[in-house]
Amino acid sequence: LKxxxxxxxxxxxxxxxxxxxxxxxxxxxxxxHWLFLNDNVSDCDLLLVKEPCSPNLSAKEVVELKTFRDFSxxxxxxxxxxRLFNLMDMLNIAHGRLASQERLLKQQGTVKVPAKTPExxxxxxxxxxxxxxxxxxxxxxxxxxxxxxxxxxxxxxTVSNRSCxxxxxxxxxxxxxxxxxxxxxxxxxxxxxxxxxxxxEADWVELENAILDVSGTEISLNSVIWSVAxxxxxYAEQQWASKEGMYRLKRWPQLGVxxxxxxxxxxxxxxxxxxxxxxxxxxxxxxxxxxxxxxxxACDAVGLGVDVVDQEVDSVTKPPIDASLAVLQAFKSKLGI
Amino acid sequence: xxxxxVFAGPMGAGKSTAIQVLSEIAPVVxxxxxxxxxxxxxxxxxxxxxxxxxxxxxxxxxxxxGVPGQKRFNFMWPILVKGAMGVxxxxxxxxxxxxxxxxxxxxxxxxxxxxxxxVIALNRATEEDLNACNELVANKELxxxxxxxxxxxxxxxxxxxxxxxxxxxxRFLLD
Lengths: 337, 175
Prior knowledge:
Chain A is of the alpha/beta class and 337 residues long. Chain A has twelve helices and twelve strands. In chain A, helix 5 runs antiparallel to helix 7, helix 8 packs across helix 11 and helix 10 crosses helix 11. The relative contact order of chain A is 0.09. In chain B, a hairpin with a 5-residue loop joins strand 4 and strand 5.
């Protein structure tokens, strides 16, 4: 793991101990190895600033601060004392951003090692009622199932509700919600899909004063969200497959227009017709559990509406051997399905 | 064994075109001079029904029926949809009253066919039309497949038939 340095201003000894303990707990879940600096702030990669804000922070740093968002699309400042999961998010986001900056510099052929400009985040000196960490908290192994995977598709669905322009490396996309399209400078839509799938939302920087008339490839917003969601198995499994609920679709997806598999026809028929469990989806469609979860996740991300219903008895049994089913199969074969 | 697929919808929606594209026999058509050109500007219209077939070898065939769009022929609708595996409801979204037509067809055909047998196909549609139709269907507390489709496109028609087949297969499993 790459080593990065963290520095937080104005810490008491107790604060330092707390941060060090939090870093130790989070270590297995961080994408980089973060070293907590006691001094020598010039070496830090991420600078967390407690209020009052340091007067010598430049305007540039303040601008960077504005683009530093957490995954629920809230802008920092963060609360102090900092919560364990907030710290984890912040460190992983910062690593993602630093890595993307590094890649950008490499792609631009920069030879000089850039002077370090630490990510700057400002803390609110709000004292929380509950302790950040206590001995009563479960051990790391017990925390792991609660760690949330993040969905770029859902982030995209959120930001695309308004006109906006985002950049990651040399890729740009602009959302035009009035026309339900996304315009990108990517040569092909697959290039944008890959970039979205391989990145996190933290990699994408919003260009706040950008002009929206980006010329380039125009893609249906929903088809982008759908395609990206279908490539998020970890998130889908966590959000859907692990639950015991029954699901019901409110609207059908645009099969044949968006990326489609044969199993999706059966899954749409099932969840459009009645509330059913993932298990029933597996039985009816022949898809594996993850595929069913991905389908539900994609339907949800694209805004079709997936109702989660309490327990209901599935009336589905194993498919009967029926002459009519044989005719339907022959019809499918005829259509080349 | 005979599977029946019915193409319904108002005049000019593309029902006859869809059957012509899909049929493996020369479609039987009952076109007559259109006396309602003030409604839809096309020279002829289906007054009886369109009929086409897709052959499935030894196991049977699929009969494709196109029902006449004019409401004065609505006495034929329940006869033609009886026993249908599915109903493709075609709409021309360039017509200003397409939402009223959709509502009327959904309400009418629901009397004879289970909503799970429907697929709604929107010809000349935009995403706005698609959303409007989905909203209308949702307001009736129904979940129906709604697609943009060009009745001249074999690919689009295949998707519609695939949906009907999946729905039919599900009925075997669920009912």
